[in-house]
Amino acid sequence: MTEAPKKRGRLFYKFLLIFLIVSLVPLGIVGYYLVNLSQVTLNKAISRDQEALAVGFADTVSSYIINFRNVLFDAAHLEDFASMNTAKQQALVSHIMQLHAAFLEISVIDANGQETVRLGRFVHESKMRDFSNDALFTKVMRSGEFVGGLEKYMGSYPAITMGVQIVNPVTNQAVGAVLAKMSLTALSSLLKTGFPEATHTQAAVIDSNGFLIAHSNSKEIYKADAKLPDDVLKILLQNDAKTGGGEIVLESTGEKVLGAFAEVTELGWVVYIQRSVSVAYQASDDMLKRTWRMMLFVSIFVLFLGYAVSLVITQPISALREAAIKLGEGDFDYLPDLSMPNDEIGELAHTFMQMSESLKVKTAEIMSAKTELERLNRSLENRVEARTRELKSAQDELIKKERLAAIGQMASVVGHEIRNPLAVINNSIYFIKTKNSLMPNPEPKVLKHIAIIESEIRQANGIIDEILGFARTRDLNPKLVHLNSYLEDLTMSYPVPPHIEMIKNFSPENPTVNIDADEMTQALRNLIKNGIEVMPEHGKIYVRSEMVDAGTVRIDVEDTGSGMPKETAEKIFAPFFTTKARGTGLGLAVVKKVADRHKGKVEVTSVVGQGTCFKFYIPVVQNPPPPGPR
Q1: pLDDT per residue over 227-246, tens digit each?
Q2: Is 167 found in the same domain as 91?
């Protein structure tokens, strides 16, 4: 027999825990504080660097646009432009477009707003335009220059419109204007160069309306709905600060990124730089991992040192503890050897061995008496339990029979005493209808009230039928039927109102069941009727069958009505319980009674506002006999 490994006692772990607390807690607190302080400081520095990068690129974008504006400004102040000589202006415009590929189109307009020169890389029309009522031309003539008017040139290229006055250098008077459309695709190239894909960094330039001007991935600007994610745009467009940055969680992907932005001077644009937090904080994470590895190494070293010290102190006490455990378990024959030193612990061990011998004798006597007492108790408990089950079963059956007998007697008396007056009332109504039909002008109100009386008589007879049907118990008359054919006949014969749609879905196995067709039809028609009544305007009734297992099939009757709360569903099969304004509350009690008589069960699931599903379980006939010859 292999000896089980020895377990350490609580004293050993107390010594070890105290040693660890004294050694590691101060080190852990200081280390945790310093590590987190260093990480926070490093992360803030990384965020500031990214914000400074956004500011620097915003200056680059501003300088880029201003340089091209200066080109137009210098040209507009040349004498050749001021002379308003069309040939000279056209030659100078052509020269500018050759030198600067960013210009897509340049137009020269005189002081009256008439276009005199128009050159463009994609312009093929020679017809000059009238700018006399153009707001952009008016603004340039009034303020001297204009930069703005972002658009998708030719539906693809992001472009900006620039305008500069043509000033006569002699008179210093405005004699016209130069309007140019400049491509901004070069900004995307600058972004791609500054933020290559390998750095896992994205950069973009947008205007104050969220228009995507440039992106480090140039494919983004050519999309039809080119824009930054909505959650990023919301932050950028609603922020009044000139620069800023911080962590952002992208709602579309759930990714956490480090973002920084800076406003482009004079243009109102925003440069946005985004980098994944996992990449941005890589250096910080590496430092944290190295620090925790060192802390783990120190902890392991201290753990081993504490283990050794605690073992020396607690080993004699552990041996005595193991002997006490064996004794407590009643194992007197296999007590461990107690080799104790000549001290207080040794004396305790000697006393312990004497006590164990005395306890061994007493325990043997107690165990013998306990065994006999347990045998007698088990015998008594089994007898009491069996008699209790028999008594409870008999009591439940007696109560059920007494209640049904009382209900049956009451139903017979009530049915007889109420149906006789109802028959008299019905005969009287028939007589009144006959007399009323012989009159030349029957009174409509009389006919209406006669119809109401007839309806109430039918309602009363229906209630009496429900009570008698529940109270009377006849012998079952089961027959083997194919369930699908039976359900098809039942649903086809049921008068479904026009505002209700009935949907059927029967089990492909088409199981054979042994049922009393009359009782089962009454139960299922009650369920369908209840479903229709809770949908007075429109709705759907689902009638389904499905094999639950090899021996059980489930029939579902489900409606799309208003449903019912849980507390109502728990009481719905109780006799005489109803939530209707008029009704006996026996319809579903009859359903449960039919299920019990067929050795099945019925369950209900309901969701308020969605509908109710009744699930009727009945056993399936295994290996039914083949149909006999007809």
Answers
A1: 777 777 777 777 777 888 77
A2: yes
